[in-house]
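User: Structure tokens for both sequences below?

Assistant:
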Amino acid sequence: SQNFLQEISLQCLHYIKHDGSEPVIDVTFADGDRLIMKGANLTTREMLQAFNSRCTAKELVLQEKSQKKANK
């Protein structure tokens, strides 16, 4: 088993609009993938769980790709 060390770069931009519309959290990942969560339908915990789940899935994909390259 290989240990993976990855430098994580996080750029966080925010845009707050107060026009009475439904609250929405829109996360755009470095690979262009988007996670859109409607705040009126989710608790903070549920939003964080969805974000963590997506990040974990992306990390697993990166690890699998690195293992395949290492095995060639």
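Moving on to the next sequence.
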Amino acid sequence: MSPFPPGRPLAFGLDNSDPGTPDVACNMRLPATPPSAGLHASSSLPHLPTLLSPFKSSPLRHDSLGQSPAHPSYPNPLSPLATALSPVMRSPSAGGPGSSLASAASQPLDSFRSERDLPRHRDVSDMPTPAPATRAISAASLPDTSSPAAASPPTAAHGSSLSAAVASQPPQAAPGVAPAPAPVPAPPPTTLLALNPALPGPLRRRTWSLEDFNVVKRLYKGSTSSVYKAVDIRSGMPVALKVYFLSKVPRNVVHMVKREIELHHQLVHPNIIQLYAAFLDADRIVLVQEYAARGDLFHLLRQMGGRMSEQQVTELVMRPFLDALSYLHARGICHRDIKPENVLYTERWSLKLADFGVSINLNDERAVTRAGTLDYMAPEVTRCPLKAEPSDNKHDPSLAYTSAVDVWAAGVLTYELLVGFTPVVAPPQHHAAMQTPVGAFMAAQATPKALHFPTSMSAGARTFILGALAEDPGDRPTTKELARHPWLAGAAAAFAQA
């Protein structure tokens, strides 16, 4: 029997032609998959087989790369992102006929909605206006480095019409002599948008192009982007390529791509997926990211029976997760989409926080958008109205929320890992909904104070969850305070003595 409540979808909007592949850096849920080939990890846990004893994995293909050295002094040659993207954003083909994306690309504003904002149970009223139907993009649409296109033969530039016609014909090879190969055209120029300051040595180069990678398979396909597993030809390193197709990116979402690159490329932490580089290739923006071979926490949880022990939650998840979240909050970055699908693992079981598509820097702008996944949204996020333009409600301080929304999501995540499903702790936000019998019941019972726990759960775990789920954001602990909670400290001490 499934440990998840009925009606909770496992996936939506997915490419069913490639089932069973892990989601690398996207906001979608894919079918469970056995762990596969690996990347390096910055750290590994002692006694890991003991923690993972309920989890039966298939044999791994060992193509680990070892630990990548950091190069904090490596120069970042990126020019301002908005300047680099402005020619493409002004193109009428980007975002539909006749549209101009220059204004949206230059605004460091919050998003209105994207498919990342959709709840796990789709609500049509919350969806943005759908884009026109387009042809599905497959991995075959990416450049194939093994079969370069043949160039057209040169034509005569002067002489009589007859000699010009003769000269315009392809040169005929002598009998028994193989014809000379046609010249290979130079690839179109690309523009480097961002470079990670700790770029691994094997990936260091002056120019970046899709020609540098062999695409292995597509991991995810959305309406505006796709994610591929690829191998860097020069170094042999596996990477994840997140490709945005600018012709399909709506006008209201362009600034999110720009902001994602600006925030993510500068992050260097052992528990955060690394964005190696981002470059503009024709009408595509390509994000070259670290590849997480073990897949995401959601599928790992399913393979472990739907729940984890307290020791597994504290050591495998919460300690490294809170370390990564504290790193973000110290820099003013609010993730806004914490959930098991965005917690990934490398071959050596190093936790990696991923997907910064809806993240925001609170030092630069005000967060007033209903963004994220509904099951993990804090009350102050769900009360934000829907937006039609990125600038909507930006000047309304009463709607602004803080990084405490990530702490709420951490509490929801902890409860789900220990119990097997997310808690119902979000009462109706509209007065009309509360007048119905169901709404009145939800208003009284769907609160952290009325939350029920299994009798087997320790008192420390309960106080940890209830603290993170405080209804007033000011009453919630910070991520550093959560990391010092006695429940985590006690579990670490017990694990060390085991």
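User: Anything stand out in the second?

Assistant: Confidence is low (pLDDT under 50) at residues 1-49, 53-80, 88-168.
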